[in-house]
Amino acid sequence: MSDTKLETQSDGAGVVEDLTFGVDEKKLVRKLDRHLIPLIMLLYTFSFLDRVNIGNARLYKMEADLGLVGNQYQIAVSILFVTYLSFEVPSNLALKPFTPSRWIAFITTAWGIVATCTGLVQNFGALVAVRLLLGAVEAGLFPGLNVYLTFFYTKHELAMRVGYLFVSAAIAGSLGGLLAYGIGHLEGAQGMNGWRWIMIIEGLPSVVLGIVTFFLLPNDAENAYFLDENEKKLMVARFRRNYGDTASAQHFSKKDMYLAFKDWKVWAFCFAQFGVDTMLYGFSTFLPTIINGLAKWTTAEVQLLTIPCYFMGAVTYMVVAWLSDRTQRRGVFVVIFGTVSVIGYGILLSDSSAAVRYFACFLIAIGLYVTVGLPLAWVPNNTPRYGKCTTANGMQLTIGNASGIMAPFIFLTAEGPRYIKGNAVSLSMVGMSTCIYAFMWFWFSRENRRRDAGQVTGQFEGMSEEELAELGDESPQYRYTI
């Protein structure tokens, strides 16, 4: 055992000395990244691809083939979120009892089968049925992965790793356009239109990925096949540095779950997530349609023009996530980039040239993943107890994803190509969320100052240090990430 010491900050509880067990911590984190991140990114890439590829399929005779009329396409897009919302929190709570490797492998294989079958439907009713099934089985993936990352990474590393999920979403958006362009050339093969081949070919890899996940995804650090005993000991020590990360805090309890439901801060993040997710689902699903309405493009040109927008969004998020983790600040970045997206929507709404409005799509994309992604790391950063964290994160995602039901109906076919209402509603929702995040940034900063000054200690007098630590973020010794 090494005599090397680590001096670790304990968020207001003083300096603690911990043994390194002869392990270089930076190399340990890189090892975690090598073994976990590629698989996690693949999972979310295909999840997002199978969820939003209906937007690309629309350009390849889907509506005509299925006889969709009126708002039936919008209904098919939004109906997925009915079951998606219903199963998010229950799925999150099932993650530990069923173990991540089994649960995530199961839902991945299941959605792969359902997504593939989407290419075989013959009418509107069948399309709605498979979309409902797809929502039910996909519901557990993103919230599950978001919580799963907290099993391996500390609060100082989380934004970057959640960022990989959003890079995956951007990759899925770019890949979706590129794949749709290539697969679209199968138009007429075996007597099927191109949209069917898009659904079938993009769905099959998820089935294989689900099987691979069962064997390669470790349940936690203790059972990680790629860590040796000293690395596992350091993993435990890493999580003991943060104030409130006690032994009991790592286990689910109903009391902690109820605390999440009663915490106004959690609800504030939930409503803000609803606002920014309106942008996420509206922009991701309808970007091909929006670009198609800017000028007279071919279908291939539309698909290819979506790729630079997603690429810019992905690069921006990873740079910002790195800065956010390095500075341990969330609010300032969310507010700045939320404002950038608002400006983008303002330009998109203007009566400008196609080139200017296409530039607006870049501005929206630049702010999109930052304003959607960073808050999903911000909530776990400020909820050290597992039961409260997993419930709060599930609530945040459930209410946020409810916007997926609304988003298709603000981009009505009859209102194209400008989609004034859809873009105006998106602008107002992102603006609302940016204001909420600005307030939370202010509130967390003020509360930390009050706790530093000892202004919130009265009700906690007589409690031991151990009892205070068990309070998690409610303890006067806890300091919020701002």
Automatic annotation (TrEMBL):
Entry annotated with the keyword Membrane: yes
Stretches assigned to the Major facilitator superfamily (MFS) profile domain: 36-449
InterPro entries, sorted: MFS, MFS_dom, MFS_trans_sf
GO MF term list: transmembrane transporter activity
SUPFAM superfamilies: MFS general substrate transporter (SSF103473)
Residue spans crossing the bilayer: 36-53, 73-91, 103-122, 128-151, 163-183, 195-217, 264-284, 304-324, 331-349, 355-379, 391-412, 424-444
Membrane topology type: Multi-pass membrane protein
Domain of life: Eukaryota
Subcellular location: Membrane
UniProt keywords, alphabetically: Membrane, Transmembrane, Transmembrane helix, Transport
GO CC terms of this entry: membrane
Name under which the protein is recorded: Major facilitator superfamily transporter
Species the sequence originates in: Pseudomassariella vexata
